[in-house]
Amino acid sequence: MAFLSFLIRRLGLSVFVFVGVLILTFIVSRVIPSNPAALYAGARPRPDQVAAIEKKLGLDKPLVEQFRVYVGDLLGGDLGESYHSRRSINTDLRIFLPATLELVIAAVVIALVLGIPIGVLAGAYPRSAFDYATRFVAVAGVSVPSFWLALIAQFIFFSQLGWLPLGSRISRDASLFYPVALQTGFFLIDAAISGNWQAWLDALHHLILPALVLSAYPVGVTIRMTQASMLEVLSETYVTAARAAGLSQRVILFKLALKNAIMPTLTVVGLSFAYSITGAFLVETIFSWPGVGKYVTEAVLNVDFPVIIAVTLVVTVVYILVNLLVDLTQAFVDPRVRLA
Amino acid sequence: MKTRPRFRIESGSSAWFLLRDRAALISMAFLIFVALAAVFAPLLTPYANQGRGDPDLSAKFRAPSIEHPFGADGLGRDQVARLMFGARRSLSMGLIVVLAAMAIGTPIGMVAGYLGGWIDEAIMRVTDIFLAFPPLLLAIAIAAALGASYINAVTAIAATWWPWYARLARAQTLSVRERAYIEAARSIGVRDRVIIRRHILPNIMTPIIVQGTLDVGTAILVAAGLSFIGLGTQAPFADWGVMISDGRLFFLSGRWWMSTFPGLAIFLTAMAFNFLGDGVRVAADPRLRRLL
C-alpha cells in the first residue's frame, strides 16, 4: 500500500518535471535567442529563408500559441528536421540514441563493478595505504577531462600497444562480411540475437576503450560515495556486535554492511548515467562513435539548432526515466524510502 | 581576556586542521602558482603577443625545446604563453560560474527555506526541472541559443548550476530556522529580510563555501568541455579546452605536445580544487575530523 502511494507520487513528479522540461526547452529555443528564426535557418541564412522559417514556426504568433504548436508536434512524435542535412531528426535519433545508450550503459556497468568493491575496501580500512591510493584515484577520476583522456587512451592502446581499435562501433571488415541485422540498435544485443558472434566480438572490441574512458568520472563518484557510506555504517553498533559474535570480515563487509551502505550507491547509478551521458557528448567525436554526442557536436559546428534542442529534450526524457527507475527500485528494496 | 595576535592559528581550529592536510596544502600551493602565472602572464613570457593569438609561422609545429618548452602550435605560437593566457580564461570561467551560481542560488534557497509554504514548494519544483537535465546538456543548448562566446558559455553554465546552491541553502536554512536566536530576533520585530541577511546567511555560509571550493574544479571541466566543442572562448584567444581541441587532430601523428599540456593543466587544476575542497570540508566539520 505504501509502495503504491509512493509510486503514484513519484510518477506525478516525473510528469510534472517532464512538462517543466518542455517549457524550459521552449524558452531556450524561442525566447532566449534574439532572433530564433535566424537560428533555426542555420548558418548565414538568406532573408527569404528566415521569413519562411518564421512562418513555419509561427514566430509571429503569440508565445502561448507557439508553445501549443511546439508541444503538439512533440507529443505527436515529430522532432522536426535538421537544417543542415534536411533529414528528419526522428530517423537520425533512432540510429544514434541506441549507440549512445549502449556506450553509456557499458560505462555505468564498469563504474559499478569497479567502484563498489574498491569503495567498500577503502571504507573498511580507513587511513590505510589502500585508502589513500583509492582516494587519489577517485579524485583523479572526477578531475580528468574526458575528451583529453580519450586522446591519451587512443595513444596508448591503439598507437603504442595496438590492442584496441581507434574508434567507430564496428570494423569495416565486420560490417561487410558479418553485417549486424539491426533491431534494437544495440549492436551487442542485435548480434547476439542473430547468433552473429564474429560481429559481436568485433563490436565488443570497439566498445571497450570509449566505455572505459567514459567510466572515469562515474568510477570516481561511486568509490567516493561507497567509501563514505561504508565508513558511516561500519561505526554502527550492530557491526560491532557482529564482530563480537565472531563473524568473518568478508561476511561483515560484503553481506552485512554493504547491504546498508548500498542505498546511497544505488543513487550513484542515476548519477553515473548522467555523467556518462555528459562524457559521451564530448568523447564520441574523438572515437568516431556514431551517437547523439557526435550528432550534437556536429550540430553545434553547423549551427543546426533544431538538432540541439531535439537531442536535449530526448536525452533528458531518457534521464528522467532512468531516475524514475532508480527511485522505484530503491523504494522497492528499502521500506525506509517509501515511508519517508 | 587577553587578545591574541591576529596571525596566530589556534591549535584544533579549522584553519589548523586544514594546514595539517598535506594534500590540501600542496593543492593550495599549486593553485596559487597557476593563478600567479595567469595574472602575470604578460610579464612572465617573452611571447605575450602569441599568448593573445598572434601567429609566428616560422615556428610552426615546433617540438618542445629549450626555447619553447611545451612546443609551438600550428600557427607557431609558444605553448607556454598560450597556456598562461589560457589559464586566465579557464580559471576565470570556473570561478565566475561558481560565484554566480552561489549568488543566484543562495538567496533563493534561503527565501524558500525561511518562508516555507507555497513559495518554498514552487521554488523547489523549479529546481527539480533544472536538475532533470543531465549536466552540460542544458548548458550546451543555452550557449547555442545565446551564440558561441566566452561570456555566453559562462552565462549558460551558471544558469544551469544555481539550483544546486538553492537546494543546499534551503536545507541549511531549514536546520537553522528554528534556533532560539532566530526566534529572539523575530520576537523583537526584526524584519524577515534582515533576519535572512544578518542571522541566517552567516550561519549557513560554511557548507556553501565548501561546496563552492569543490565545484570550481568541476566548473573548469565543464567550461573546458563547452570550449572544446566550440561554444566557449573564440579564436584568436584560447582557453585550455580550445587548446586541446586545436591539437587533437595532430595528437596521434606525432605532434603530441599541443593537446597534452593543456589537458594536464585542466587535470591538475581540477584535482587541486577537489583536494582543497575535501580538506576544507573535513576541517570545517568536527564530526568528519573524528571519522577520518
General description of the model:
The complex is a heterodimer of chains A (340) and B (292). Chain A is mostly helical. Chain A has 15 helices and no strands. Chain A is globular. The two termini of chain A are 14 Å apart. The model of chain A has no long low-confidence stretch (mean pLDDT 85). With 292 residues, chain B is mainly α. Chain B is 72% helix and 0% strand. Chain B has 13 helices and no strands. Chain B starts with 13 loop residues before the first helix and ends with a helix. The model of chain B has no long low-confidence stretch (mean pLDDT 88). The chains are: A mainly alpha (340), B mainly alpha (292). The interface between A and B is large, with 59 and 48 residues.
Multimeric organization: heterodimer
**Residue share in β-strands of chain B:** under 5%
The greatest interface here is: A-B, 59 and 48 residues
Radius of gyration of chain A: 24 Å
Tally the helices of chain B: what do you get? Answer: 13
> What is the chain-wise order of helices and strands of chain A?
HHHHHHHHHHHHHHH
Give the integer mean of the pLDDT values of chain A.
85
Helix content of chain B: over 70%
Number of strands of chain B: 0
Question: What's the SSE blueprint?
Answer:
The complex is a heterodimer of chains A (340) and B (292).
Chain A: H1 2-31, H2 36-40, H3 47-57, H4 63-75, H5 89-124, H6 129-143, H7 146-160, H8 172-177, H9 187-193, H10 197-234, H11 237-244, H12 249-283, H13 292-301, H14 305-333, H15 335-339
Helix pairs in contact in A: 1-4, 1-14, 5-6, 5-10, 5-12, 6-10, 7-10, 9-10, 10-12, 12-13, 12-14, 13-14
Chain B: H1 14-20, H2 22-39, H3 41-44, H4 48-51, H5 79-115, H6 117-131, H7 137-146, H8 150-177, H9 180-187, H10 192-228, H11 240-247, H12 257-284, H13 286-291
Helix pairs in contact in B: 1-12, 2-5, 2-12, 5-6, 5-8, 5-10, 5-12, 6-8, 7-8, 8-10, 9-10, 10-11, 10-12, 11-12
